[in-house]
Automatic annotation (TrEMBL):
Classification of source organism: Bacteria, Pseudomonadati, Pseudomonadota, Gammaproteobacteria, Oceanospirillales
Organism: Salinicola acroporae
Protein known as: Methyltransferase
Keywords of this entry: Methyltransferase, S-adenosyl-L-methionine, Transferase
Listed transmembrane segments: none
Positions of region (Disordered): 16-46
Signal sequence range: none
InterPro entries registered for this protein in UniProt: SAM-dependent_MTases_sf, SAM_O-MeTrfase
Keyword Methyltransferase: yes
Gene3D superfamilies: Vaccinia Virus protein VP39 (3.40.50.150)
UniProt-listed GO biological process terms: methylation
Bias type Basic and acidic residues, positions: 16-35
Length: 224
């Protein structure tokens, strides 16, 4: 039996969206270099539309494959995503949800991005598996009914910890939590990297460099 992630309609949408994201990223990097900007950007707030509203900022294919396999192999049925953008990561999560008989609740602050994400999911044949909630995820994800099996954090990094803490009471035993861009965080007290790597009684965590970024992969053990 062919896995959902290998269906032609899904591969086609992912290929196109990954290509477009790569092209947008390299164009923007060239523009920054031209005006003398180098190094990582300071983390903007999600309300900074100039940075967020039209940018993919999406995970790469290797990261997507890892998300798919982790969600699929753990049998995750109730999947939550913080930061859906144009739906690239959402497609990987929805493919796993489809194979597992589950669903994804995503979140996105910008209406144009949510619309485009849902169009991509429709084209991939996965829209029936996904609801993307519009608005600030610290509010829109607050009434999700648990148990939640799998969480992907990829929105405003300063909100990873509050979003995850707000979901904790509804996490399933042994839920998996994946977060992107851990290389942008120092690991000092007060940031998410510190939060998930220094409480082994609550979260078993490893950091993994993959593709163009760094994931944290954590397993939840319940409140200490
Ligand atoms: C890095 S991008 C997500 C990329 C996406 N996960 C993918 O791989 O295709 C971050 C997205 O999160 C959204 N976002 C950031 N903070 C948010 C918040 N508080 N509530 C809802 N969406 C938020 C941004 O608008 C942006 O589209």
């Amino acid at each position: 039996m062919i896995s959902t992630i290998d269906q032609v309609s899904i591969r086609r949408v992912l290929q196109r969206e990954h290509d477009a994201a790569r092209h947008q990223r390299s164009t923007r990097q060239a523009e920054r270099r031209a005006v003398g900007e180098t190094g990582p950007r300071p983390g903007p707030s999600f309300r900074d539309a100039a940075y967020y509203q039209h940018s993919y900022l999406s995970i790469g294919p290797d990261q997507g494959a890892l998300l798919y396999f982790l969600a699929r192999a753990s049998g995750a049925c109730r999947i939550v995503e913080f930061g859906s953008s144009f739906g690239v990561s959402t497609i990987y999560l929805a493919a796993a949800a489809s194979d597992n008989g589950g669903h994804v609740i995503g979140s996105e602050f910008y209406a144009n991005k949510r619309e485009r994400a849902m169009a991509n999911l429709r084209e991939a044949g996965l829209d029936a598996r996904v609801e993307i909630r519009l608005g600030d995820a610290t509010e829109t994800l607050s009434d999700i009914v648990g148990p939640i099996d799998f969480v992907f954090l990829d929105g405003d990094k300063s909100l990873y910890q509050p979003v995850l803490e707000s979901l904790e009471s509804r996490l399933a035993a042994d839920a998996l939590i994946i977060a992107d861009n851990l290389d942008h965080l120092t690991g000092d007290p007060g940031d998410f990297r510190h939060f998930v790597t220094t409480q082994p009684d609550r979260y078993t965590t490893r950091l993994m460099s993959i593709g163009k970024g760094m994931f944290s992969v954590s397993q939840w053990h319940g409140k200490a």
